[in-house]
Design brief:
The protein is mainly α and 191 residues long. The chain contains eight helices and no strands. The protein has helices at residues 3-8, 22-41, 47-75, 80-99, 101-107, 109-135, 137-155, 162-190.
Length: 191
């Protein structure tokens, strides 16, 4: 092979990186929208019933999100440690809330808000980092919202009524994040 022929050949392309299946992203986005809508416009018969309903919905959300993070490990092995960590933390937190919703809702609401804030910051940082590893702009935007949401909760977790504010922030995050995830799913499907 001559030197000129070697110069004209293009360098070999890197193999495509595996991505989360588009349908899994779509299901996650739809679930986020449904949970967020329930949190924002749920049955307001009484504040107590609604508050405990929202706590249980949030527990289910964390549990499902953790399971999706673990399932995602089987399709994309990049950042497996972060995905495993976030999946396990979400499953443990969601399971604890579902086992003890009254305790979480009445005895330690400030700790609940603090845990929600820490989870939001960690999850947001992971999503923001994944945006630069091929996740796309939707992951970056949702990650920024999650970090912002988490920081607000961490700063204000001792304020009376912070639990109610946390519910509204979680609802807003879920609805906005859900729409971005649905959009991302259809982008993935086209690709």
């Amino acid at each position: 092979m001559t030197k000129s022929a070697a110069k004209t050949q293009a360098p070999p392309k890197a193999p495509p990186q595996p991505q989360r299946p588009w349908w899994l992203t779509l299901v996650g986005g739809i679930l986020a929208i449904v949970v967020g809508a329930l949190l924002l416009w749920g049955n307001l018969v009484t504040q107590v019933k609604t508050y405990f309903l929202l706590i249980e919905v949030l527990g289910i959300w964390w549990l499902v999100d953790g399971i999706f993070d673990i399932v995602h490990l089987f399709t994309d092995h990049r950042q497996w440690a972060w995905k495993l960590f976030m999946g396990l933390v979400s499953i443990i937190a969601g399971g604890y809330i579902l086992m003890y919703p009254v305790l979480v809702g009445t005895e330690i609401p400030s700790l609940f808000v603090l845990i929600l804030g820490i989870w939001g910051v960690i999850k947001g940082c992971v999503m923001f980092f994944m945006a630069f590893k091929g996740g796309g702009g939707a992951y970056a935007i949702v990650g920024i919202f999650a970090v912002f949401f988490g920081i607000i909760l961490i700063v204000a977790y001792t304020v009376p009524g912070a639990g109610v504010v946390a519910v509204w922030f979680a609802a807003l995050f879920a609805v906005i994040g859900g729409f971005f995830l649905v959009y991302r799913a259809f982008q993935q499907r086209k690709a």
